[in-house]
């Protein structure tokens, strides 16, 4: 998580909270329309209807603002679904990712943020924090599956969750076919099968 003194990371109330909300939504709009390389704090301030000084004082830099956008996205994401089975939980996760990545605004936003992260280390760190938060939200479904005996003890819960979403991001970014519910279900089923087979057990010996 961001440090206490990083710009834009305080969660204030009242008018300050409304200003933060307006600026973050304006930043998302600008990222979606223009991309990271053309993101400008003055333009974001204009879109949000707030003074430039406010934006520069609170966020300081474009990367500081993007970091707060990602933190807010992680906080606003839908909570984990518990269905009582690993299959159901992983499919719920996959379908949530699929819906997010097929939403026109969200898909464009993620593409812009991922593209920015490839060339900016601070944005990359912020993106990693975002996914760490989301993976940690869903990892308990795998740990519960271990307790139920559905997958072997020692299964790396975080890796299983990452394996569910990885094919969906591949389709988003590389164009590997339709990104629909069927694709989401297949991704979940593949991750579940691998987990049941012990592919994600920590320290698993590899064949010679």
TrEMBL record:
Superkingdom classification of source: Bacteria
The keyword Heme belongs to this UniProt entry's keyword annotation: no
Cross-referenced Gene3D superfamilies: Homeodomain-like, Tetracycline Repressor, domain 2
InterPro entries, A to Z: Homeodomain-like_sf (IPR009057), HTH-type_TetR-like_transc_reg (IPR050109), HTH_TetR (IPR001647), Tet_transcr_reg_TetR-rel_C_sf (IPR036271), TetR_C (IPR011075)
Ranges annotated as DNA-binding: 40-59
UniProt keyword annotation of Repeat present: no
A GO molecular-function annotation: DNA-binding transcription factor activity
Pfam families noted in UniProt: TetR_C_11, TetR_N
Keywords: DNA-binding, Transcription, Transcription regulation
HTH tetR-type domain ranges (all copies): 17-77
Name of the protein in its database record: Transcriptional regulator
């Amino acid at each position: 998580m961001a440090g206490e003194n990083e710009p834009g990371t305080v969660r204030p109330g009242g008018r300050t909270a409304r200003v933060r909300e307006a600026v973050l939504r304006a930043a998302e709009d600008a990222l979606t329309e223009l991309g990271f390389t053309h993101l400008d704090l003055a333009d974001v301030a204009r879109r949000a209807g707030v003074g430039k000084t406010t934006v520069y004082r609170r966020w300081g830099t474009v990367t500081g603002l993007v970091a707060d956008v990602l933190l807010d996205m992680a906080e606003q994401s839908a909570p984990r679904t518990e269905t009582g089975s690993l299959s159901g939980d992983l499919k719920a996760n996959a379908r949530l990712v699929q819906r997010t990545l097929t939403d026109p605004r969200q898909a464009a936003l993620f593409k812009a943020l991922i593209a920015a992260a490839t060339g900016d280390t601070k944005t990359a760190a912020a993106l990693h924090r975002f996914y760490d938060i989301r993976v940690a939200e869903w990892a308990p479904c795998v740990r519960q599956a271990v307790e139920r005996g559905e997958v072997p003890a020692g299964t790396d819960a975080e890796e299983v969750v990452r394996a569910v979403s990885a094919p969906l991001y591949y389709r988003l970014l590389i164009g590997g076919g339709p990104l629909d519910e069927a694709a989401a279900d297949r991704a979940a089923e593949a991750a579940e099968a691998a987990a049941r087979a012990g592919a994600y057990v920590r320290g698993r010996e590899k064949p010679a």
